[in-house]
Amino acid sequence: xxxxxxxxxxxxxxxxxxxxxFGAYLLWGWSGLMAINTFMYGMMQSLPYVQIFALICLxxxxxxxxxxxxxxxxxxxxxLFLLFAVHAVLAASFAYPDIPRNWELCTNLLKTxxxxxxxxxxxxxxxxxxxxxxxxxxxSGFHGLIExxxxxxxxxxxxxxGNIKLGDRNHTAVMTVMIMPILLYxxxxxxxxxxxxxxxxxxxxxxxxxxxxxxxAGLLTLIALALWVVFHSRRKLxxxxxxxxxxxxxxxxxPESWTNRMDTIKSADEDGSFMGRVMAWKRGxxxxxxxxxxxxxxxxxxxxxIFDYYRYKQGILGFVETPVQSYAAAAHSIYFExxxxxxxxxxxxxxxxxxxxxxxxxxxxxxxxxxxxxxxxATDLATLMGGGLLAYMVGGASISxxxxxxxxxxxxxxxxxxxxxxxxxxxxxxxxxxxxA
Amino acid sequence: MVEAxxxxxxxxxxxxxxxxxxxxxxxxxxxDLGLFNYLESRDDAAPPRRRGR
Lengths: 437, 53
Description:
The complex is a heterodimer.
Chain A: H1 2-19, H2 21-34, H3 49-62, H4 76-93, H5 102-122, H6 126-153, H7 169-189, H8 193-213, H9 216-232, H10 236-253, H11 256-263, H12 272-290, H13 304-310, H14 334-369, H15 376-395, H16 405-426, H17 430-436
Chain B: H1 2-26
């Protein structure tokens, strides 16, 4: 039945995408983030949805079929994205031999970066920014909605295992928390009451889905996001009370196994799972120390072929005592993952991308403050997306999610938002004024 | 069954969104996302103030 539903949707969506470049762009992003193939079981499972919509979008772009398309203009964010893409290709080229997923991961990252680099050309108005946010919420919020409803229907007994595309339950938890600020923004700015109710309901169910993963990283990410939202809220008391209600609600519905699991955060140094992560971090940093410019290649840290060589290396974490790891585990940290895969050079570009997003956030707030034009919607959105990125930086410290689409999309969306605020505050650039005249 | 139903809703909302986007992009000045429409400002959501006597 699902396959027939999908077939029907595709028969409607493909002609729409063929007529509208931005629609095709949204569908490209949606099919990637949603991992739609993982919800199919029959004839529609093997259809390359992302490639279909990407190809339609790129073809329409080449033929210049979008009247609202802007020309490509470089800024700090696009420059960093291009640098990161070039560095990723070089890192994959100079990688250790026999790394099973080296080029596969590099290609996936390049596709993500391409999607993001095109964003300033296509997301050119508030209307389009809002449509983009809706696409992100529909794609990423769906995973949390499914898992959260299973948790509710099982009376709190459901243990979410994550999604094949997103990764294990820790990855799913962090990615679910990242979409929450966007759902909150959509709730705040929804015109339709039914839609408003829908956004807040999905947000609450998404919080429950994070509980259903029993992920400690998920809980820490949730706390970081809550603190960010309260700290930046104009009504701090109301915000704190709302958070308190959520915390009490979580304690009321969470099963005992969840509380026991979260208790182990206090004794992380005695926890085998956590110490396993530290061992992987040691190997990741050791690979970077031996290959400081290009690293060892994508997911070299978990390649059995080079595991024996780095097994006893301490990297930059020699001061932490750990037992010797017996198998080639994943990096378990976005920082050590990028460090080991792309070297210190790649790590610095990756960090620059993240820091640059917060610099852009500050610039948006500064522009808004110095202007009489009401761009509060943009400062609200930028602040909430900052919370999403903070969630990624906190939760990402213990998961291998360095190349996930969502953070890169948020970073570029922040840059797009800055351009939009600049346009609303200062008006079109002189070249356009001249052309209009 | 519930998952299939939710998937159906998801596909329906995506079709609606792309339909609104295509319509909004084609018709100049008709920037309407229908069910997904947004407030220009959060102040628009507040009820109108009573005028002074």
